[in-house]
Amino acid sequence: MAVHSLSAGPGEGLLVPAGIVHDLSPFSSHPACEEACGGNRASNLRSTSLSYCKLVRQNLGEQHRLYHDTEYGFPLTTDSELFGRLVLEINQAGLSWTTILNKKDNFYRAYAGFEIDRVARFNDRDRARLM
What we know:
Blueprint: E1 3-9, E2 12-17, H1 31-37, H2 52-58, H3 62-70, H4 79-92, H5 97-110, H6 116-120, H7 124-130
Antiparallel strand pairs: 1-2
Helix pairs in contact: 2-3, 4-5
């Protein structure tokens, strides 16, 4: 699976599987944002209603902005995308989503690029490595 390396800030990079980068503009629009912000994030930040879309613009940091603009609210269409999201959600237990986003590249590498067939062939050594 091909990946894009996106700059996540000075000296940082984020691996994103090819095909899931939808729009890198800071004001991309997606169904969840349309509903929460009326598609106009910039003018809706002052509302008293707090949505993820609004929080991202206020103070959640670059990793959240990048996740919001490239993944949040976009449909997952492949088994690998769904599996990748499942891996991240399962590993979030007790952790903040910020922690998961900061470690996302490591999860991607540890779980063979979220390729289900490769993960299904993991042996005892691979499973021990994940623990």
